[in-house]
């Protein structure tokens, strides 16, 4: 990280009520201009209170679910929206065909590789795949600024390789952080700004006009939404931004991740709230599995087996993807598939072939089920996903393909996944979660572990499962009861091979997450406090 206090924006240029905290980066001078900051401040002042109320509503609902005062169901008050015939605005031309989308963090080299990968679209991720250090967030914005203008290049001093954009590149889509996160380096009237508003606002302020001028547009993926009210908040943010920046109405376009269990009951409503801006929904399977455990985890009849046994062919997950496809196609929206966690394995041909076979099977299943496109985590997987969709999708998408008219019930979405809970599964969760937390605290939001891609969503499953298994004192392999003492013992045994400055912090964070009576809704919330401590000490 290059720090330069000489480039710190003069305090007198900061709009009233706004303050920047922590280290100052060279990129800030061009990005955090007075006008850009004023725009961010206006978004926070207008929408910050609503965001906090909606987060409080999440907590209140969870308390009602835990107390059996509420059961998840399709909302009665929006039955008319579900019954009526309406469609969303047509997609922009460059998002008609999105059969393969690559995702990745906002690092400079990765952005160039992803845009050059041959995928139709690239989702640049400030969220699950990024650890939100100030440097990553600001340099990520700078990298995207350069990518939009096609001036991005990179020279890797280690390999000696130089990188620049091909003539033909993927369409850029940006995923800001979710509503639960804040960006502590910018405060508005003494409060940290919403990270969603920061990431979205800064990107749209600098790039929306330029993207439209180049025949594309400001396109976003919206993560971790739990209700139609949270979608409506995004709609208002879009409307306000279009007006403030003098953009054509409806030019900001979004794809919403259905990656929480509560949101699965409001797919129609989310599409409806965003009907002039939305393009599709996406099956964010990893956060969805995490959300299933988080939402229903206190129920003794909903104990989820080892992570490896919970697949997209489990009845509840199959029901979720079928409902998403059916709902989207009825409304003229794209039904995007999700991420297979397997990635290419170097120096082990058999393991590599096995990983490719798993990804191929997953993508073929998605294409046959009626999805309009899918995600890959690595450029080496673009060809496999493309072949799976090419085989069944001669046109740009499958929106018009007739689908079986079966109803998906609320009960179908809440079937407990079947399988076993094993000591090997527990130990795998411990190893993955702690190594991931260590990487995150070191500024890396996505890592390969044991031949799988691990990011914030997959790590959330690991820690939430261990919490649930402890809460219910499950039996491992039908032999040993899981207790806090046994967890401590397994953690100590698993960690003997790992050394490094931040492993101790990762270990204690993991144990806190698993042993807490009321676990935090996202691991990134307590982990962000650690990250800030490192950042402010830097
Ligand atoms: C649950 C969810 O939210 S899914 C969405 C969030 N997750 C993601 O976006 C996953 C993104 N994927 C990644 O970050 C990476 O693929 C990892 C961390 C899993 C593995 O990365 P690596 O170990 O570096 O992979 P590997 O060494 O095989 O990379 C080979 C090349 O491909 C590039 N590459 C790998 N993944 C990507 C990617 N997603 N985008 C662009 N380039 C990539 C590497 O930069 C490297 O480039 P180089 O040869 O020019 O140096
Ligand atoms: O964001 C995607 C997911 O699977 O989680
Ligand atoms: Mg996710």
TrEMBL record:
Q: Which Pfam families does the entry link to?
A: MS_C (PF20659), MS_N (PF20656), MS_TIM-barrel (PF01274)
Where does the record place the catalytic residues? 175 (proton acceptor), 455 (proton donor)
CDD domains recorded: malate_synt_A (cd00727)
Q: One GO term of the cellular component aspect?
A: cytoplasm
UniProt keyword Transferase present? yes
EC number(s) of the enzyme?
A: 2.3.3.9
Question: What's a BP term from Gene Ontology annotated to this protein?
Answer: tricarboxylic acid cycle
What residue stretches are annotated with the Malate synthase C-terminal domain?
421-530
Q: Kindly state which keywords UniProt assigns to this record, in alphabetical order.
A: Glyoxylate bypass, Transferase, Tricarboxylic acid cycle
Which reactions are catalysed by this chain? glyoxylate + acetyl-CoA + H2O = (S)-malate + CoA + H(+)
Q: Where is the Malate synthase TIM barrel domain?
A: 171-404
What sequence ranges are listed for the domain Malate synthase N-terminal? 19-79
Work out whether the entry's keyword set contains Ubl conjugation.
no
Molecular function GO labels: malate synthase activity
Q: Which family does it belong to?
A: Belongs to the malate synthase family.
Q: What is this protein called?
A: malate synthase
Source taxonomy lineage? Bacteria, Pseudomonadati, Pseudomonadota, Alphaproteobacteria, Rhodospirillales
């Amino acid at each position: 990280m290059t720090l330069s206090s000489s480039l710190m924006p003069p305090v007198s240029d900061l709009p009233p009520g706004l303050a920047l905290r922590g280290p100052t980066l060279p990129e800030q001078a061009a990005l955090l201009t007075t006008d850009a900051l004023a725009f961010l401040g206006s978004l926070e002042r207008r929408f910050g209170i609503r965001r906090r109320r909606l987060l409080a509503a999440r907590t209140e609902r969870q308390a009602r679910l835990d107390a059996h005062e509420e059961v998840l169901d399709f909302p009665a008050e929006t039955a008319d929206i579900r019954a009526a015939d309406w469609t969303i605005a047509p997609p922009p031309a460059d998002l008609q065909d999105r059969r393969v989308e690559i995702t990745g963090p906002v690092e400079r080299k990765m952005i160039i590789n992803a845009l050059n990968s041959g995928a139709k679209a690239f989702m640049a991720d400030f969220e699950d795949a990024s650890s939100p250090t100030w440097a990553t967030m600001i340099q990520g914005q700078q990298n995207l600024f350069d990518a939009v203008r096609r001036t991005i290049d990179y020279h890797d001093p280690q390999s000696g390789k130089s990188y620049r954009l091909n003539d033909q590149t993927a369409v850029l889509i940006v995923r800001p952080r979710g509503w639960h996160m804040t960006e502590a380096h910018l405060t508005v009237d003494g409060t940290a700004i919403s990270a969603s508003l920061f990431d979205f606002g800064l990107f749209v302020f600098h790039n929306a006009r330029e993207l439209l001028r180049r025949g594309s547009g400001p396109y976003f993926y919206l993560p971790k939404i739990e209700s139609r009210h949270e979608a409506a908040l995004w709609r208002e943010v879009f409307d306000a931004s279009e007006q403030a920046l003098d953009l054509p109405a409806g030019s900001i376009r979004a794809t919403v991740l259905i990656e929480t269990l509560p949101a699965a009951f409001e797919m129609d409503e989310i599409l409806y709230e965003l009907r002039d801006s939305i393009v599709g929904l996406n099956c964010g399977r990893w956060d969805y599995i995490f959300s299933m455990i988080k939402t229903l985890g206190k129920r003794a009849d909903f104990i989820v087996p080892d992570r490896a046994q919970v697949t997209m062919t489990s009845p509840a997950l199959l029901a979720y993807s079928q409902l998403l496809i059916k709902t989207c196609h009825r409304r003229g929206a794209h039904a995007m598939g999700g991420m297979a966690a397997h990635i290419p394995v170097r120096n082990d041909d058999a393991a590599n072939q096995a990983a490719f076979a798993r990804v191929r099977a997953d993508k073929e299943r998605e294409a046959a089920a009626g999805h309009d496109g899918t995600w890959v985590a690595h450029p080496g997987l673009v060809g496999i996903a493309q072949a799976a969709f090419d085989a069944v999708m001669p046109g740009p998408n499958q929106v018009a393909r007739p689908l079986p008219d079966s109803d998906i019930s609320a009960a179908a979405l809440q079937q407990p996944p079947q399988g076993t809970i094993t000591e090997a599964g527990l130990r795998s969760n411990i190893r993955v979660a702690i190594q991931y937390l260590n990487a995150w605290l070191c500024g890396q939001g996505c890592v390969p572990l044991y031949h799988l891609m691990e990011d914030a969503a997959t790590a959330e499953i690991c820690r939430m499962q261990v919490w649930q298994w402890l809460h219910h004192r499950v039996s491992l392999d039908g032999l040993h009861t899981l207790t806090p003492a046994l967890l401590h013992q397994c953690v100590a045994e698993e960690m003997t091979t790992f050394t490094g400055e931040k492993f101790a912090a990762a270990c204690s964070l993991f144990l806190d997450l698993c042993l807490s009576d009321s676990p935090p809704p996202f691991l990134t919330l307590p982990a962000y406090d650690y990250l800030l401590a490192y950042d402010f000490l830097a």
